[in-house]
Write a structure and sequence with these properties.
The structure holds two protein chains of two kinds.
Chain A: H1 18-21, E1 22-23, E2 26-28, H2 30-33, H3 35-46, E3 51-55, E4 64-70, E5 73-79, E6 85-89, E7 104-106, E8 110-111, E9 118-119, E10 125-127, E11 149-153, E12 156-160, H4 168-172, H5 176-184, E13 190-193, E14 198-202, H6 207-213, H7 219-222, H8 224-233, E15 251-254, E16 260-263, H9 265-268, H10 272-277, H11 289-293, H12 298-303, E17 310-314, E18 318-321, E19 324-332, E20 335-346, H13 350-363, H14 371-384, E21 392-394, E22 403-405, E23 409-413, H15 418-432
Antiparallel strand pairs in A: 1-2, 2-21, 3-12, 4-5, 4-7, 5-6, 8-9, 9-10, 11-12, 13-20, 14-20, 15-16, 15-23, 16-17, 17-18, 18-19, 19-20, 22-23
Chain B: H1 16-37, H2 41-46, E1 48-57, E2 70-74, H3 76-87, E3 99-114, E4 118-131, E5 134-149, E6 152-162
Parallel strand pairs in B: 1-6
Antiparallel strand pairs in B: 1-2, 3-4, 4-5, 5-6
Chain lengths: ~425, ~180
């Protein structure tokens, strides 16, 4: 069976026809399995738009750094001497060795251990051993390569290797107010990324994770065992999981540039306390919470430990959900790394942050009660998509009933594929752009 | 990894009392390994004290998971929920379940402050898991805190220090 992209695999990028691969309501299998499509995505999407690189609290002080990636480009996010966030390519400008080996830390600069070249926190080349061996080395041109654009919104830092992208706030557009609400679940405390992260790797395409974060349809099926376990010990599960479509059901939304939201607030509120009360070390029923946590109005902060009850997906690589930041790192067309970082509240009582950690562990990480089953479904999809003679994935759910608020903002029922259609409209836009 | 694990002291010859306790410990660890490989999770739970902790830190150097992120950090009710989920038939990442075979070695009683009533045991493990055509080898160390209850040893705490627990992992939904 020939593939639509090229007539032969892998696709030659110049012949890739994005409009043929992504149509309204359906997506071609090549989008998930073709290495040529993946190579084009890395250039046109990950090098073409804003990509999430980290949170302010990961690089709080001058010299703090975090090793991460923009698509397949290894980079260092670092707070430079002026307090600015910089995104440097983790590659010595001399002969290519990485200059930063640790996942995170604090540094005065970076040194390539191969031949001893040293670089400042801003990437500038500072030292070249035995420099008299060079007749005319232009040190100013030999710094570490850096992303030309780095901007942040409410602590979330994004970078772009495309100097011509619009301002970050313009790019985020309609999803800004949801990011505000996500941040404000902290009730005035500053969000602080935990010192450790849960990391997982799955053998399927990166977009599976992005689609999944704003997929309300899968919850009661993929995560059936979670709700069985919870409902055995608590009274109720979210109503939308076991009832037909109702007027006040929660919604999903898609925004310009592929961003999307799944807003569970109307459904989840009444089960949150029950989920907290079953966590290891939770205050027993009847406990005076103000006394237990050592603050006034403790119940409000305790309830906030389950997060803002909304999932946000910022195209192409950031998911916010529960109380965590989820980084989606494509490794290959059929391999993806997922990093989950729980958000704690800086300056809040330890007992509050302890409950937040326990809540995160309930679902997340490779042994959580939620994430492994999602990863399993991504891999089952990868197995199924090996079938070459079935070409299309169906994404039409709710297409006829979604509300249009202008061309770019659409609102659907919790179980509809409105967010995914928005993600693929953006995919097509970027993949069709001049490389 | 010093700091995370009890320091190993070179001790004198095993006297009959210590020898008999070591045999008892070895037998408990062997029972635990076989129960887990056989998926006899209800009987595995019976090896634990009523108040217990079963956990795996993300940071292999962490010896107190309270204020740190863990891969899992289970009190007894959470262990029971974990078992119920695994046996429910709808924990899909373990459906069909992984086949596992685990061995342990280098068993040492490392801490005897509690005397005969409570002590710590350090050992290494190798766990081979097979599922859906994929064979994985996981290794690390186990730190058991054992307590004597009605003359019988039970597990008050089990810490599993997995090599690579802070690196990207395939699902680890089965029991360690």
């Amino acid at each position: 069976m020939q593939t639509l992209a090229t007539g032969c695999a892998p696709a030659g990028e110049e012949r890739l026809d994005a409009a043929a691969l992504v149509q309204e309501g359906r997506v071609h299998r090549d989008v998930y399995v073709d290495p040529g499509v993946f190579a084009a995505e890395m250039r046109r999407i990950f090098m073409g738009t804003w990509v999430y690189v980290g949170h302010d609290s990961e690089i709080r002080d001058i010299g703090d750094y975090k090793a991460t990636a923009v698509g397949l480009e290894p980079v260092i996010l670092v707070r430079d001497g002026d307090g600015e966030a910089r995104v440097l390519v983790n590659r010595c400008s001399h002969r290519g060795a990485s200059v930063c080996m640790m996942p995170a830390g604090a540094a005065k600069g970076f040194r390539c251990q191969y031949h001893g070249w040293t670089f400042g926190l801003d990437g500038a080349l500072l030292g070249v051993p035995f420099a008299d061996g060079y007749a005319a080395l232009d040190k100013r041109a030999m710094g570490l390569s850096a992303a030309p654009r780095v901007e942040s919104y409410r602590g979330f830092i994004f970078a772009s290797f495309n100097p011509d992208v619009p301002a970050l706030t313009e790019h985020l557009g309609g999803v800004l107010s949801y990011i505000d609400r996500f941040v404000e679940h902290a009730k005035g405390y500053e969000l602080q990324v935990a010192a450790d992260a849960n990391e997982a790797v799955y053998n399927a395409n990166w977009k599976m994770q992005l689609e999944n974060n704003v997929d309300g349809y899968h919850l009661s099926f993929t995560h059936q065992s979670l709700f069985e376990v919870l409902s055995g010990r608590t009274a109720s599960q979210p109503r939308y999981l076991n009832s037909a479509h109702q007027q006040d059901d929660p919604t999903v939304e898609s925004f310009a540039n592929g961003h999307a939201v799944m807003d569970l607030r109307s459904a989840a509120a009444h089960v949150l306390r029950e989920r907290l009360d079953i966590l290891p070390g939770a205050p027993p029923p009847g406990t005076d919470l103000d006394e237990f946590f050592g603050i006034e109005q403790a119940e409000e902060l305790y309830l906030a430990s389950t997060g803002p009850a909304m999932n946000i997906s910022i195209f192409p690589n950031l998911n916010l959900g529960s109380i965590n930041i989820c980084e989606v790192h494509p490794l290959a067309v059929n391999r993806t790394r997922v990093v989950l970082r729980p958000l704690l509240l800086a300056g809040a009582p330890d007992e509050i942050n302890r409950m937040r950690l326990r809540y995160h562990e309930l679902g997340s990480g490779p042994a959580g009660f939620v994430q492994p089953d999602d990863l399993e479904m991504f891999e089952r999809a990868a197995e199924g998509l090996a079938a070459e003679h079935v070409q299309w994935l169906e994404f039409s759910r709710g297409q006829e009933r979604e509300l249009l608020d202008g061309e770019e903002h659409r609102i659907g029922h919790i179980s509809d594929e409105t967010p995914q259609r928005g993600q693929y409209r953006r995919w097509r836009e970027l993949m069709e752009a001049e490389a | 990894m010093s700091g995370s694990s009890p320091t190993v002291e070179v001790s004198g010859p095993l006297d009959p009392v210590r020898l008999s306790r070591l045999a008892e410990v070895q037998e408990l660890l062997a029972q635990e390994a076989h129960l887990l490989d056989d998926r006899k999770y209800g009987r595995w739970l019976e090896l634990f004290a009523d108040e217990c902790l079963y956990w795996m830190p993300v940071d292999p150097r962490s010896s107190d998971g309270t204020m740190r992120l863990n891969v899992f950090y289970d009190d007894r009710p959470r262990m029971e929920a974990r078992v119920a989920r695994l046996l429910s038939g709808s924990a899909f990442s373990e459906e069909p379940p992984s086949m596992t075979a685990r061995t342990f070695s280098a068993v040492l009683v490392t801490e005897e402050d509690g005397g005969e009533e409570e002590f710590a045991v350090r050992s290494n493990f190798m766990l081979v898991a097979h599922r859906a055509g994929e064979q994985r080898q996981l290794a690390g160390r186990m730190l058991h805190r054992l307590r004597r209850r009605d003359g019988r040893l039970c597990i008050a705490e089990k810490r599993v220090v997995l090599l690579g627990s802070d690196a990207p992992q395939r699902p680890l939904a089965f029991l360690f």
